[in-house]
Amino acid sequence: MHSPVRKFFSYYKPYLSSFLSVLACSFIVSGIALAFPALVRYITKNVLQGDLSTALHEVYGIGALMLVLVAIQNIGNYYVDYKGHVIGSRMESDMRSELFAHMQKLPLSFYDQEKTGSLMSRITNDLLLLSELYHHGPEDYVKYLVRFIGAFMILFSINAPLTIAVFCFFSFLFLLAIYFNKMLNRTIRKNKERIASVNAQVEDSLSGIRVVQSFAGGDVEIEKFKRENDRFLVSRKATHKAEALFYNSFETIIQLITITVILFGSANIVHHALDLADLITFLLYIGFMIEPIQRLNHMSTQLQEGITGFQRFMEIINLKPSIESKTNAIVLPKVQGEIEFKQVSFRYEEQGDSVLSKLSLRIRPGEYVALVGPSGSGKTTLCSLVPRFYDATDGEVSLDGFDVRELDLHSLRKHIGVVLQDVYLFAGTVMENIRYGNEAASDEEIIAAAKLANAHDFILNLPNGYRSEIGQRGVKLSGGQKQRLSIARVFLKNPPVLILDEATSSLDNESESIVQASLDLLARGRTTIVIAHRLSTIRNAQRIVVLTEDGIAEQGTHDSLLALDGTYAMLYAKQFEAQ
Ligand SMILES: Nc1ncnc2c1ncn2[C@@H]1O[C@H](COP(=O)(O)OP(=O)(O)OP(=O)(O)O)[C@@H](O)[C@H]1O
């Protein structure tokens, strides 16, 4: 678990020298600002009340000095604004990259619980104002602390009792700021959670836009969206209420301070304890003490946005990937493909029911094994334990005799190819999608893989051949075409172990036979586990394993299982009748 404070400051490290130069500049600029009321005081108290024949000459001299100071101050402010913001944005961008990379390592069990849209919101919205926090946070503290302490000391030297009276008001402001900042933090956190829900709703509706339109479900989606959007509005209203209360209480106290200074200052003038020039100086410096507080006050929503964004960032960063390579994990350069499940039990959630219980199965290198059984019996779950999409709750899964938890995760997954029923293609070209199987592959190798997957001909018929854009999730392709691209991807990967999970189930007869031909070719010489509902497609499997809710019910070849006249024979007869 990272310490939040240490983690927060660690992002300054790569930019430390630039950031210190910004802080130094900020310090100088604030010091210069303090000189102006002192110069006004000098003019009103010393120059204008002294020898008037030389006064104008001296005033021009001070005016020239002021111009030089203004120039230095503005150049300094430009540097602080520009450089500071760039540094803040860089840190924000570093954090965004770190969060995305961290999410890549989180296990599927994490994604089972979270909504994609909410996670997107954490990467985009939540981090947006962190740059302001990183840049303005320390820099404003330096700037305003210099101004505040400097003004306090000068005022104290002019009139100590009045300064202390004013300071009492400031401590009250300070306490008020702490209280309201806590309140803002709460409401802003709620805002972020609710905008994340709005995002999740948008993502869900738009990803399923085909289902929405086919069910004419636009109104339902609009209603669901409105519900989330309204909840966001309610929490925004609470934030605005807190902000308005905060700002206006502050302004009231600040006005009270000014009135106190005018009243007490005037009384002091009447009693000859203060002169007019001192009162003017006092009022100018009070402005210096008030300005930092006003500014921090107006900035506080932005800063709080940054703080809550950081807190939500830490919630994810602190999640330790439960499935990762051990230190000194074994890297397998070559895999024979022997898979063994030893007394494997599994359940998805800690409190949930077991999906698999003490299951044992050994698959020989190069063997073609079909898994069949009723829906929900755990076939997909069993296969997902091999590439460690999930870890067995009990027992051991091994590859070539090595417990998969001892193997380097990258090297383990490199040796396993998975073809699913629900193909996922990325927005991009055909070429880019096939290359996903092996980033180092040449164009020729990609074309060869496409030929093996029976995809080459249809790809050439696309408007731009291999350079054709296939749209989000491959919408511009048919189901069979998408499946053949996903098979080409696995051909290119060339893994010794293959898992085919209902790869042809959603295809029509013609597409199925083309895809089946490519799958048969793909399976050649590899250890293959096939999950199939259509039993006709696995008749030739070397071994058929029948999985039921109670575990492995029977196994053997198609003919031996029919002869056994058990679960398989019953499933087969049912399908045969239906056909
Ligand atoms: N990600 C998940 N989180 C929680 N439970 C799950 C998850 N995936 C599957 N399950 C549950 O685990 C059980 C086994 O599911 P699994 O998908 O492995 O079965 P299957 O035999 O492959 O089914 P089918 O043939 O219908 O695909 C089911 O009861 C299912 O509800």
UniProtKB/TrEMBL annotation:
GO molecular function: ABC-type oligopeptide transporter activity; ATP binding; ATP hydrolysis activity
Bilayer topology term: Multi-pass membrane protein
A cellular-component GO term for this protein: plasma membrane
Compartmental location: Cell membrane
Coarse class of the protein's main subcellular location: membrane
Keywords tagged on the record: ATP-binding, Membrane, Nucleotide-binding, Transmembrane, Transmembrane helix
Domain (ABC transmembrane type-1) ranges: 22-305
Record InterPro entries: AAA+_ATPase, ABC1_TM_dom, ABC1_TM_sf, ABC_transporter-like_ATP-bd, ABC_transporter-like_CS, P-loop_NTPase, Type_1_exporter
SUPFAM superfamilies (UniProt xref): ABC transporter transmembrane region, P-loop containing nucleoside triphosphate hydrolases
TM stretches of this protein: 59-80, 164-184, 245-264
Residue ranges annotated for the ABC transporter domain, each copy included: 339-574
CDD domains recorded: ABC_6TM_YwjA_like, ABCC_MsbA
Domain of life of the source: Bacteria
Family per similarity comment: Belongs to the ABC transporter superfamily.
Protein name per the record: ABC transporter ATP-binding protein
